[in-house]
Design goal:
Keywords: CBS domain. There is one protein chain. By secondary structure, the chain is of the alpha+beta class. It has seven helices and seven strands. Helix 5 (86-96) packs parallel to helix 7 (127-137).
């Protein structure tokens, strides 16, 4: 079975909780990503997704120039190790009901992300991915 380091997206950037939502959205666009980990003084405190920006800011009519990441982010982080199997990651996604996991190395540094799409594109056994999709979609 493949390991996450074989299927994850690499070169991840973090965003500070004090960054404006507009700047965070621009960074997402530049990087072609839908999620940024939120880092405060070297500690991961949450994630900001494009959906967070839309639901917690745009839909509420707030000024994205003056609203900070902290106000729209999802607190808490679900993390997997780069040596975890794809099946383990899929089970973790289902259990946590998340579509993306941050991936860390043995030094606990963020080295990438893995999404349901990554799993679907790189696995030969569709069962773990199907179980993850069912788990994520359950709520």
């Amino acid at each position: 079975m493949k390991r996450l380091k074989e299927v994850m997206s690499k070169g991840i950037e973090t965003v500070a909780p004090t960054t404006s939502l507009r700047d965070a959205a621009r960074r997402m666009d530049r990087l072609s990503v839908g999620m940024l980990p939120v880092d405060e003084s070297g500690t991961l405190i949450g994630t900001l997704t494009d959906r967070d920006i839309v639901v917690h800011a745009v839909a509420e009519g707030v000024d994205v120039n003056n609203t900070r990441v902290r106000q729209a982010m999802t607190a808490g982080v679900t993390v997997a190790d780069e040596d975890d199997s794809v099946a383990d990651a899929a089970a973790m996604m289902a259990e946590s009901q998340v579509r993306r996991l941050l991936v860390t190395n043995s030094q606990k540094e963020v080295v990438g992300t893995v999404s349901l799409r990554d799993l679907a594109m790189h696995v030969t056994d569709p069962v773990p991915v199907a179980e993850a999709v069912r788990g994520v979609s359950a709520h």
